[in-house]
Write a structure and sequence with these properties.
By secondary structure, the chain is mainly alpha-helical. The protein is about 80% helix and about 0% strand.
Length: about 140
Amino acid sequence: MIRRLIAAAALVVLCAGAAAAQLGIGGQAGMPPGPPPRRAAMLLPTLLQTANLTADQDARVRALLTTRRAASQPLFQQLRQAEQQLLDQLTSTGPVTVAELRPQLDTIGGLRQQLLQDMAALAIEIRSVLTPEQLALLRPVKNRT
């Protein structure tokens, strides 16, 4: 059970980091600020393990993840379709200009922005499940990563 929770949390963090990088939010070369991507991807699962969730908290976090995953699926599907359309445009045999790609790029950027906002909202919801004591336990773990 906890492995599924950790895997889902890692997916949330990866998606948020990828969305931030694609939107150019963050540090050098579009990379998100903070730890390198692999370490950042494991931050939330590590934090949740360190927090020692109660059975009730575990159930609440699972419900949040399940709800968010279901709500995000259509956005991920739209993003995949938009990226495929962009790829089709870029690999076509005719000439392509940035102006022609702009609507597709805007669509992709908008979808990624929405996903990033959804992931931030999820992180805030998960955080609200934790007690102040659990949040205090997380600081040293965050600082080690």
